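dude i think i finally got it to work??
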Amino acid sequence: MESVILAASECDVEAEIICAPSDVLELFEFTKPLFSIGGFDFTRTVFLIFLAMFIVLAILYYGLRKGEKVPSKFGAAVESLVTFVRDDIAIGIIGPEGIKYAPYLLTVFTFVIVGNLFEVTPLINFPITSRMAIPAFIAVVTWVIFVIVGFKKNGLHYLTDLVWPKSVPLALRWLVGIIEFVSTFVLRPITLAVRLFANLVAGHLMLSLLLASGYIFVTAIPDVGLKGFVGVAWFVFGLGIYLFEIVVAVLQAYIITLLSAVYVQTSVHPEH
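look at this
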């Protein structure tokens, strides 16, 4: 409802065709603290980050508890999720050594998918991954892992083979080396973070504006007459985007996890 309130406060349904706050950052930035503990302010975003963490912990704990010879449907679903990340992503992409990175990849996948699905969760309607800090933190951690693994597995050859690739003609090695160096050490974490961030920002913005405009125009029908029925179109379109964003939420969680595994694989097996 916050997006409805923000849009309604400045919306002129007689002169405008869609309702939006003057500054769309209001849909993403929540600086007013809900409560404080000591000197730490718990804003809505901080609260949702902790909520996502506890949801992931609860899902994995209750889904993977031992003691049941025949797992429940919930337990079987969680085990299937863990098996998918471990076998299809970690081992499937990295190889046998990928089992060591499965816990991290599982953490990324489950946390991101929960954070993404907050966008379509009633009474929340805000994906925490639309705040750059979350995708950036995940990207930096992934970057640190694959860089450390690269040097640990290959020593200085990890860097020298990158900046001076022997498989490339001599005249082009310096150019390809610069491109590979920048791509590996600079662009990978940036693109990993921006890909997730941009998709969730776009989805949240579209949903907020369409559903808020639909609600505001429909409720204004007694005042503006037939023009208010444009809100029905916005609302129907918004519901279509709503279903699409569920797919996007799952897909983006899979992509960031898959790319994280690919980057680790290039450090474990740089010859590939």
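The first helix runs from residue 2 to 8.
im so relieved honestly
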